Amino acid sequence: MTGTTEPTEPTEPTGAAGDPGDTELSQPARSAGSVGPAELSADAEPSDVVHGPRRPGVPALEARGLVKHFPIHSGIGRTLLVHAVENISIALPAGTVTAVVGESGSGKSTLARLLTGLIKPTAGEVLLDGVPVGTGAKARRKYTSSVHLVLQDPFSSLNSVHTVRYHLERPLKLHSKLGRAERAQRMRELLERVSLTPAENYLDKYPHELSGGQRQRVAIARGLAVEPRVLLADEPVSMLDVSIRLGVLNLLDDLRSGENLATMYVTHDIASARYLADCIVVMYAGQVVESGPATQITDSPTHPYTQLLLSAAPDPARAETPVLGGRGAPPSLINPPPGCRFHPRCPFAMRVCATTTPAPRPVGEDHVSACWLHASGLTEDQREPLVATAEAVPVPVSAAAAGDLPDDGSQA
Amino acid sequence: MTVNGLAVPGPARREEPNEPVLEVRGLCVDYGLGRDAVRAVNDADLVLRRGEVLGIAGESGSGKSTLAYALTRLLRAPGVITGGDVLFHSRGADGQTTTVDLLAADVHQLRQYRWSEIAVVFQSAMHALNPVARVEDQLTDVLRVHRPEMSREERRARAVEMLRMVGINADRLRSYPHELSGGMRQRVMIAMALILQPQIVIMDEPTTALDVVTQREILEELMTLRDRLGFAVIFITHDLSLLIELADSIAIMYAGRIVERAKASELFHAPRHPYSLGLLSSFPSLHGERVRMEGIPGSPPSLAAMPAGCTFHPRCPYVMDLCRTEEPPLARPLSEGGGRVTACWLQDGRHDPPEPLARAVPLVSSVADADDLSRSTS
Fold first, then answer.
1. Residue of B181, B188, B217 best to disrupt the A interface, most CBs of A under 10 A
2. Which residue of B has its CA nearest to A103?
3. What percent of chain B has a predicted confidence (pLDDT) above 70?
4. Of B182, B300, B378, the CB nearest to A321
5. Rounded CA gap, B256 and B244, in Å?
6. What is the pTM assigned to this prediction?
């Protein structure tokens, strides 16, 4: 990383906004925190609800109205768009852990990558300590030393031909002006901070000599080398053995209080999110459907999708077999369903759900839910149940493929 | 008696005490030969009963997959089976039970039993399915070999029926694996495994790569099919919390050994081995107070450098001097009856096990009954 290599991104296709069947994007999506479409009912809150833990002061990292559409060129001149992330505002205050939970293809990893700056948002902006992040090389370098990403697979995120020492020394060389002796001292401290002690035993090891948990600790230590303020952990434990997972989660917990880090923990495991996080943000098909304090989300979920996730999660303490509310798979993000994107699977779907996107509404303290069930002032006609569509859910074949698009989004 | 070409087990399957369909005794598997050999599975004893779900849980490298491959003789070099018996009690169409020693069987016998009586669902459906063959061809190929008397139309009809059983529309027959989502691929794998109505299905982490909702749907379908077709399942996974919901009995493996075997509810409420306890407390709960959990310190031993005595002793919070030198036998805890066994010196009756390992088994009759009911109606 020499700092000057900006991810190249084709200029935003201007025809994108006129995509049919999508109410939320039919406005010029440049203004941060754009207000929801006009056809939302009167009691709707403005849709720029900021998700994440509430703390006084300026959050370490804040995203406003992030939108990411990946273009797909079909070869005959028509450009399709994958609506990966839609109008998400999230704040990560220092000393907190925010968990982003969702199925694969829900856009949670895309959100993490947008926050790292590895991919550029289609619309919206990212603020570090309340200041918008610039686009120049210098600003980017400053940003990369403040925000760090920990990847899912420690087997491939560490270079197998280099030692632990190399992995830790490189960010120090690039981002600090420390001398050789100071760097060595710093590396020892880093390894001690992630409980790899004595550090001398690990510095000259190669990744293949370490266990999965140790490798992930090295990856986290490397992330901490540049003294970041924000740690974005994308499924950091899903590749690890169960007995080692808790160790890594507890390490993230210690870093929250010890280093005052703002952490975003991306996961599909809602139980571990409850264990670690202050706040859980539930994503479905590129949108936030519910967010709030972690225990409140798991103890009294208010969105049908959160309820579905919870009923599907393994839980040995459960007395009876859960009944799944909403079968099928997430929709294709190329042509997402109009209205609420969950409505084709939702057991409570009403007529209004199929036409208008629900805005996030407060349902408790710091707890918002984007569901028409929590809206007041709907007409009888709007409340009419949508039984027919709830029965026959087509399982889109492309759903899996559409969710796993290359994250850099470059076609060059 | 067949309905739609599928054998229907007698309605009394649940009431009669299920007889064993597979018995494993003292199975040992090595990787490598001579001095370089490491023991991957050591002295494994298992009994799988008809229609039962037997879970095998453990961390990666604990030997759970090796055990499964060994008992189907699918183990590839350098894996070598060095001892033990695997007895398969096959029930023929006439209701007669014949017993075969799978480890002594020759290639022809194995060919007769593999897939048609003992089927395997592998972990990665993307790798286990042939990427250049349509789903239909992959399903009907099995029938062409094992049911040569079937005509092309019958084979096709059977393939359609199997797909419908696992919840896939018949128009997917013409699809290639890459055109299916991960959940559908795994369903095709299950359909393939069940197409010859096996008596045993071995599932090696069948849902690990899937989303929770898809995982739950597939497991529900599997349990419904189990109730309908009466096959027994060996379910291998690292997700103990899932296994407790799913399995009838569970074997916990650590470093190649079975360290505890018990009914699922007994294991959950009253584990007897410190490793089982550690695994159980590695899964954060969805309810109650949030407390800091510590999991299991350290990491599993390398098979090439196994600690002396009990292999778990370097990580065990209750380690005693005895554990460092003597290997505990897999035995019934002295204080209780039932079919459960554990390999821990704390349970030999001469020591007082600490409170977490001495919890009384709750009056399981009601719990177990409720479990059974919910499972059969799921």
1. B181
2. B211
3. 90
4. B378
5. 21
6. 0.81
Question: Is A103 part of the contact surface with chain B (CB cutoff 8 Å)?
Answer: yes
Size of interface A-B (CB pairs under 8 A): 130
Single-letter residue type at A400: A
Contact call for residues B200 and B231 (beta carbons, < 8 A): yes
Question: CA of A249 to nearest chain B CA: how many angstroms apart?
Answer: 10
How far apart are alpha carbons A61 and A43 in whole angstroms? 30
Rounded distance between C-alpha atoms, residue A264 and residue B274, angstroms: 33
- Contact at CB, B295 and A245, closer than 8 angstroms: yes
**Other CB atoms within 10 A of residue A118 CB:** 15
Residue A257, chain B, CB below 8 Å: the answer is: no
Angstrom distance (rounded) from CA B343 to CA B333: 9
pLDDT, tens digit, 9 for 90 and up, residues B103-156: 988 989 898 888 899 999 987 777 789 999 999 999 999 999 999 999 999 999
List the one residue out of B50, B54, B52, B53 whose CA is nearest residue B95: B50
Alpha carbon separation from A71 to A181, A236, A368, B27 (Å, rounded)? 48, 28, 31, 55
Q: Which residues 234-253 of chain B have a CB within 8 Å of chain A? A: 238-242, 244-245
A99 close to A54: Cβ distance less than 8 angstroms: no
pLDDT in tens, B230-272: 999 999 998 899 999 999 999 999 999 999 999 998 999 999 9
At B172, is the secondary structure helix, strand, or coil? helix
Amino acid, res. B223: M
Q: Which residues contact A125 (CB under 8 A, 6 or more apart)?
A: A32, A63, A64, A65, A132, A133
Which among A378, A351, A373, A348 is positioned nearest to A361, based on CA atoms? A373
Interface of B with A in 88-127 (CB under 8 A): none
Token duo for residue A261: 């880090």
